[in-house]
Structure formats: C-alpha cells, structure tokens
C-alpha cells in the first residue's frame, strides 16, 4: 500500500491536492519510510469548520475546492481514483485552502492502450463513505462514481460536523443500512438567513444525486462542480 501511495502521489500537482515533498528513510519513524508533506496546522476540514456552522459562504467554498481537487484527479492521464475520500483526508492549508490527502487507497486507471493499473488491496476504504457496489462484490473496483458517492458523504460532514450514518453505532449497522439502500439522512436544518437555508438545501440536493444506487446514474465531478459554482453565484 505504501509503495502504491508513493507511485500515485508523486505525480500529483494541484492547489487542492496536498503535495508530496519526498520520502524519508532515516530512523525514528518505525520500520517503514516516512512520507514528507507540508504540515497543515489547521487540521482536517471537520476540525476547521467546527464552530462555523451557518457560515454558508465558507462551507460552499470548501466544497467547491474539494470538487476542484477531485476533478483534477479524475482528469489526470491516467485518471486517479482517490478511493478513501472523507473529512479526515481533506486538510486545510496555511492559506485556508482545501488539500486532498492520503492516497493509500488510490488507484490509477489507464486507457485500453495504457499499462498503468494500480488497485487497492482487499481493504477498500472506510465503511461509512463506501459506495454500495463496493460492499456488494468483493471484486468491485473503486471508480470515479464511487468517489462521487463519497463526496456526497463529505457533504454530510461539512453541513453537520457529523460522520455519515452517525446514528449507526457500529460498522456492521452501517453495512446493513447501505445494503438495504439507506442513504445518510439530512442534518438538522440550519436556522439562519433565508438565503443560507436555501443554499444548504440546494447543496443537499447535490449529495442526493451522488447517492444514486447505480454508479452510472451518479453525476461526474465536472457537472457537480458547475452546479455548485452556479449556486454560489446566485446566492452569494
């Protein structure tokens, strides 16, 4: 997994993707080499947004930056599938920009003529953010569509500060819920300015579209990003 993470991460260069500076093989970090990247003192997006509930302009901007980073990954040649998109893997830089990180479950897909095809191990990511097709089939592969499902789950975190399916105490309960077609429920409606309530309702609609049960029915990242930009232009 570490070798795969290095092979994927070293090729990435985008403002909304955490850069990899290098690999440290010295002592003091255990048996495995250490991956060197910038220190993000603001923590992950959930930590950063804690206490900012209702600041809809900030929330929608961060979601837009997440989509910008995801769009870059999906449009790479070969395309890069993140494979474990969640709040804990979305850091906030010193300039307060989103940076996607942790490519340990990432995969690179080449086209039919290409040779690159790195896939994750039997562990496929984190249950609460995992698309149903990954649970239904042991041989299922991460795709851009499964990344979009995970983005919908990140919307839950950004709007509520809670993990998706937070009412389910165990992973087993989450797996059963997903198997029965349940999607994360909407966080409590924010009581604020009417435009803020309306904006969050529209953002929630984006999440619902990302949770289509059939992967082919989920929108790609580009139109979702376009819709979010349109929302920000209309509401802000």
Helix proportion range:
40-55%
Query: Helix and strand succession?
Result: HEEHHEEEEEHHHHH
Residue-averaged pLDDT: 86
Number of helical stretches of at least 4 residues = 8
Strand percentage lies at 5-15%
Low-pLDDT ranges: 111-122
Number of domains: 1
CATH level-1 class: Mainly Alpha
List the quaternary state of the chains: single chain
CATH architecture level-2 label: Orthogonal Bundle
Domain Protein kinase: 1-236
Keywords: Kinase, Transferase
Protein name: Kinase-like protein
Organism: Exidia glandulosa HHB12029
Describe the protein in words:
There is one protein chain. The protein has one domain: Transferase(Phosphotransferase) domain 1 (Transferase(Phosphotransferase), domain 1). It is 40% helix and 8% strand. The protein has helices at 2-9, 45-49, 56-74, 132-136, 144-160, 171-179, 194-210, 221-235; strands at 22-24, 34-36, 79-81, 90-92, 98-100, 107-109, 117-118. The strands form 3 sheets. The protein has a 3-stranded antiparallel β-sheet with strand order 3-6-7, with no helix packed on it. Helix 3 runs antiparallel to helix 8. The chain is globular.
In short:
The protein is mostly helical. The chain has helices spanning 2-9, 45-49, 56-74, 132-136, 144-160, 171-179, 194-210, 221-235; strands spanning 22-24, 34-36, 79-81, 90-92, 98-100, 107-109, 117-118. Strand 4 (90-92) and strand 5 form a beta hairpin.
């Amino acid at each position: 997994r570490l070798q795969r993470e290095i092979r994927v991460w070293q090729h990435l260069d985008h403002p909304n993707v955490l850069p990899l500076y290098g690999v440290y093989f010295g002592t003091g970090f255990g048996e495995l080499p250490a991956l060197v990247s910038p220190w993000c003192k603001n923590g992950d997006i959930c930590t950063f947004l804690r206490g900012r509930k209702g600041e809809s302009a900030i929330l929608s901007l961060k979601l837009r930056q997440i989509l910008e980073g995801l769009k870059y990954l999906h449009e790479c040649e070969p395309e890069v599938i993140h494979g474990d998109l969640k709040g804990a893997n979305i850091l906030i830089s010193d300039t307060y920009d989103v940076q996607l990180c942790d490519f340990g479950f990432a995969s690179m897909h080449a086209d039919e003529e290409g040779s690159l095809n790195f896939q994750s191990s039997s562990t496929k990511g984190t249950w609460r953010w995992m698309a149903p097709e990954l649970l239904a089939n042991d041989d299922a592969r991460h795709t851009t569509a499964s990344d979009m499902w995970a983005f919908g789950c990140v919307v839950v975190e950004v709007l509520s500060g809670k993990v998706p399916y937070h009412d389910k105490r165990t992973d087993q309960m989450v797996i059963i819920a997903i198997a029965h077609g349940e999607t994360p429920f909407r966080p409590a409606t924010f009581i604020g300015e009417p435009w803020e309530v309306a904006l969050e309702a529209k953002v929630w609609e984006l999440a619902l579209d990302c949770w289509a049960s059939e992967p082919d029915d989920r929108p790609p990242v580009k139109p979702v990003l376009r819709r979010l930009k349109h929302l920000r232009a209309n509401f802000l």
